[in-house]
Structures are given as C-alpha cells and as structure tokens.
Design a protein that fits this description.
alpha/beta; eight-stranded mixed β-sheet; six-stranded mixed β-sheet; about 20% helix
Length: about 625
C-alpha cells in the first residue's frame, strides 16, 4: 500500500481493482461543481545467444538463486539491462524526475524442481511470447467515471489517465523492436493480453484497443472534438490542471508541473504501428463491465450529457462502502448519487460511442476483418463463440505447447472473478485431452494413452486470490467456482506449467507445490500498464534435457525514454509516453514505500520480476 490509510479496508488496491480508481488518505472533501468554458486551441498541434551467467550468487533459503545477466546485443531492451527509477528529490513531497537505473538480475527459483548444472547449454527452446495486461485504455471524459472518489483520498484518481493510449502505443513499439528472447534466442511468436484492455466497457475504448493492437490511427477523445470536457480543466483543485499555471490544485501542491497545452496534446490523434506478431485476447472485468464493477444497464448515463465531478463526502463514502463490500451488483448506490446531483454536474457533449458493449459486441469486434492485423482473425475467438457468448478457448502456442484462455469475469456486476460450472467442465476436458496421465478429484492416477502430452499454459484476467463465489453477481443461477477450486483442478494435470494472469496490478509469482511433485505448477501474476511499474512480461519456455523445464519471465518497459524533457515541453507522442510513465511513478505516497529504488508492493521482489522458474517434467 502507499500512503496512510484512514480506513484499512478501503485501500488503494481494492478500489483500483473495483473501479479503476484507488483510495488512500490525502485530499480534503469537496462539494459542488465548477462549469468551465471551452479551452483555447494552440496555433500548432505538433508541439542471439545466452546471457552472461558467470556472476552467480548462492541460493537463498526459499530455493532462489540470483545471477547477473548482460543484455546480448542486438536484442531489444529489457529490465535485465536497465530500469526506470525516480531520481533524487529536491525536498520532501516534491515531484521527482525519472532516470535510467540498473537492471534487475535473473533470479532462479527452484522451489518446485532442482536447478541442474549446465542446463542452459543443453536446453531446447520451446516457445517465446509476451503478455500485456491491464492496459486500461480510458476515455477520461465518460460520464460513468467516478473521479469524485478522490475526495476520499489522493490516490483515488490517476494524473496520467489521459495518456493511456499513447503509453500503450509505446509498449507496442517496444515489442516490435524485440529481436529475440534473452534466454532462448527465440523471437516472440505472439502477444497475449490478459484483460482490462479498456477501462469503462465502452465501444469507443474497444475501438481504440483493437486499433492499438492491429494498427491504425486513434484519436483518444470523445464528446466535443474541439474541447476537452473532463476533470482536468474543471477548476476544481481536487484534480491536476496541467494547462492552468495559476490554479494551485492538490497535485501541483505536491509538485506536479505546469504543462501548457497538455490536454490538447493528450487528445490529439496518434498512430499505432500495430503488433508485428499475432496477438490473442483474454477478457477482464473492465472489458465486461463499466468501471470494472458497475451494472451493464447504465447505458443512458454513459451516453448522456451530465458528468459528475464532485459529490458531498457522505455520498462518496456511501459509494466507497458499496465498492468495498461488493453488495451492490445493480449499481443502485451509484445511480442514486448520479441522479441526485445531476443538476450540479458538468454539461458535456453526449456521445453514443460511449455506450457499454455487450459480450457479443466484444466478440464481433475481435472478429471484424478490419482488426485482424497480424492475426489470427478473431484473436482466439471464432464465430462459434458468438453462440452463447463464450469467451474461452484453447490455441496452439508452439509444437507440443498449448495455450488455454479462460473467462473469469462476473457479468452481473462485480470486480472479483470466478468460473461457471460449464466453463470449469470445459477446462477439465481440455486439460484431459492433452494429458496422458492425470489425477481424479480423489487423487487416483488416470491414464489416457492417446493424449499428446503438451505443456499447458493457462491464461486468465483474475489471479487465484481474486476469484470468489458470489451468486448475487452472476446473471444466471449457474454455480460459480473460486480460485481455490481452479487451483485444485489445475493441480490434477501434471502437464500444466503455469497459470498466467493480471488484475492485481502487482508482480507476484507463486509456486503451487503438491505432495505429489508432478502436480506442482507456477502462478505468474503481472502488474498493470496504467500504474507503476508500467511493464509487460516476456515469457520463454525451454526443455533442459534433464527432466526439468524452465519458464523464464522477463519484464519489459515501453519504448519511451526514461527521461522526460527538462521543461516538460516535448508533447510529441514519444514525449507524452515518457511523461505517462513519470506521472505514474509520482503517484501519491509511492516514493515513500520504495527501497533501493523499487516499490515492492507493486513491482514485486526479485523473485517476482526477472526469473527462471523450474518445474519437473518426469511424470
């Protein structure tokens, strides 16, 4: 956590997961609304091979071992080589610029299998791919956004949110620049997005995401094409007003800069080159539900003309309680707040493109030939998925390597995850079809001589700890299954190598060991690209030829330079992408929790970042 929490149960990460916002202490309450005029427009709109492993450290008591890794030219930059970090502050609470920092070494994790000597010289590369997660491409002018929660704490709104598109374009550019994985020499074969691709379940955000991934021009603006109509020119000191030098808002008081023409630049058209490799899509709660937790029936508010910028403290507290408990799947509390204060809300330009999309809309948009890009058409989904609006599938990653993408979202209105019985049974059948040996629910060995024994990687949005059984949030009476049940199912199939996911906005790698070693596997939880530390993750799979396999995980940064322009006057796409990262690193209270330049609550420890995860394959 960051900052001081007045209510330990209403913390930054919980609210971030629930609504794309987070709550911490810091800001004073504000009521009423200020209705500004249109902003001025400027005169111009421009404004191969294995790494060096000789430096080896002893293994720690948890079975981990760290070793230095040098970037093997000409491969693209990863965090093995360098990482962004905050430079020195001029004083307490001041804004800190980013500087290049040292890379993070590879940590060998041997909790589930021993690390054989010389394995890197005899290993056979099997697969290489990249994971994106929690991009949260955000239409920051959407009337359904709940920025007013910032009256409950300074971290309940992100100063960088208007730059999500340009920041994600820089990540696409970095993946395109990766020559090959640093451990196997294989080039990435595809990118998998593990959900929360968009922030508010709106049609316009979905169009931005699909264009980002497949290539084309994106204008990250909605409503009036000539005027920004959000919180950042509202005149309310609750929010950062980068264009207004005179207003001493909350964020300028903690050091955020004056950036003339920021809003003009942030809503300017940007071009995405699109990924040069195929990509696959996994759905998250923000893709399924407005704000990641709101009822999908709020269409009229989303496309309407009233945007609430602030509410009385009592109403913000009531909505905060509803988010914390998850006991309002129909969003009745928020609906009441929005309607009660409609007269004091800001008038904005209605935009039908802000309407929430349905699961069928999501599938159909992926299948649209205009968004095929590097393929495959549908990005994992086919026309067959439209029948029943099913968002789960399997696909071939490489020879003898299978990927399985599952849908862990509640469609009825909650940010936590689960699986329905139908999908859980499908997952069991899929795993069984690729496992010549498995175990039944009572632990008895089951043999299937005709199975192909593929290595299996499972992808989802929610991590195991974020999956619960909430029948009130399910649209039907189908029983739901939590993370513990999914873990139990995966442990029955020795061919499962890892469960790869997001949602938590933190880097965390968990070994799921078993008394029968063959039933062990890894869970790899990757942080978001909207919050610190702004990473994607590169995966490489190799057979070590000694009865073990290695799954390498390497964090990668976007193509944006670490350093922003000294005078904050570079408003090009590249300059804005750098500023996007820098603003995230200056989130309220974040620097106070850093040790050695790393905030481990979010970036994870050494064993959660650049790793070699060993697993036995002698079944």
């Amino acid at each position: 956590m960051t900052g001081t929490e007045p209510d330990a149960t209403l913390n930054r990460r919980r609210l971030l997961l629930a609504s794309g916002a987070a709550v911490a202490a810091g800001a004073a309450g504000t009521t009423g609304a200020f209705l500004p005029g249109r902003r001025r427009r400027p005169a111009t709109a421009d404004a191969p091979g294995h790494p060096d492993t000789r430096a080896t450290a002893p293994r720690d008591p948890a079975g981990r071992q760290s070793r230095a890794v040098r970037r093997p030219t000409p491969y693209g930059t990863t965090t093995l080589e360098t990482t962004a970090r905050l430079g020195r502050a001029a004083g307490p609470g001041t804004y800190r610029r980013l500087v290049p920092g040292p890379g993070w070494p590879l940590t060998v994790r041997a909790e589930l299998a021993a690390a054989g000597t010389g394995r890197q010289h005899r290993s056979t590369p099997l697969a290489c791919f990249v994971q994106f997660t929690d991009l949260h491409l955000a239409d920051v002018q959407n009337p359904l956004r709940t920025e007013f929660l910032r009256s409950r704490g300074a971290s309940a709104w992100r100063a960088q949110e208007a730059l999500t598109v340009v920041g994600a374009v820089a990540m696409v550019e970095q993946v395109n620049a990766l020559g090959a994985g640093p451990h196997t020499g294989l080039p990435p074969a595809f990118v998998m997005t593990t959900g929360d691709n968009v922030d508010n379940n709106s049609v316009i955000e979905l169009e931005w995401f699909l264009t980002l991934m497949s290539g084309g021009r994106i204008t990250p603006n909605s409503g009036d094409p000539a005027a920004y109509e959000g919180v950042q020119n509202s005149g309310l000191p609750l929010y950062w007003h980068p264009d207004d030098a005179a207003l001493r808002d909350l964020d300028k008081r903690r050091g955020l800069p004056h950036v003339p023409w920021f809003l003009e630049a942030a809503t300017r058209t940007v071009s995405s080159p699109g990924l040069r490799v195929p990509w696959y899509s996994t759905v998250g709660n923000h893709d399924d539900l407005p704000g990641g937790c709101l009822s999908p029936t709020l269409h009229d508010i989303a496309v309407g003309s009233r945007k609430l910028l602030s509410v009385p403290d009592a109403d913000a507290a009531a909505y905060g309680r509803a988010l914390r408990t998850g006991d309002d799947p129909r969003s009745e509390v928020l609906t009441s707040v929005l309607r009660r204060h409609a007269a004091s809300a800001r008038t904005v330009t209605p935009d039908e493109r802000r309407r929430p999309f349905t699961p069928r809309d999501y599938l159909a948009a992926h299948l649209d030939a205009a968004h095929t890009g590097a393929g495959p058409r549908g990005h994992g989904y086919t026309e067959d998925h439209l029948d029943g609006e099913r968002m789960y599938y399997s696909f071939r990653i490489a020879e003898n390597v299978l990927g399985v993408s599952i849908d862990t979202t509640y469609r009825g209105g909650h940010y936590e995850g689960s699986l329905g019985t139908e999908q859980l049974r499908w997952l069991e059948r899929t795993l069984a079809a690729h496992s010549s040996r498995s175990y039944d629910a009572d632990g008895r060995l089951v043999r299937r001589p005709g199975a192909d024994d593929a290595h299996i990687l499972v992808f989802s949005h929610h991590h195991s700890a974020g999956m619960t059984r909430r029948p009130d949030a399910a649209p039907t009476g189908e029983p739901r299954h939590d993370g513990a049940e999914v873990l139990a199912l995966l442990s029955r199939f020795p061919n499962v190598v890892a469960w790869i996911n997001g949602h938590s906005h933190v880097n965390r790698i968990t070994p799921h060991g078993h008394a029968t070693p063959a039933r062990s596997f890894w869970e790899v939880n990757t942080a978001s690209h909207v919050d610190y530390p702004h990473h994607a993750r590169l995966f490489e799979l190799a057979d070590n030829g000694d009865g073990t396999i290695s799954l390498f995980t390497t964090l990668i940064e976007s193509a944006a330079p670490h350093r922003t322009a000294p005078g904050f006057d570079d408003l090009s796409a590249v300059g804005l992408a750098s500023l996007y990262r820098e603003l995230a690193y200056n989130a309220p209270g974040l620097a106070a929790g850093m040790s050695g330049g790393v905030q481990e609550d979010w970036a994870g420890g050494a064993g959660d970042r650049n790793t070699e995860l060993l697993l036995g394959i002698t079944r």
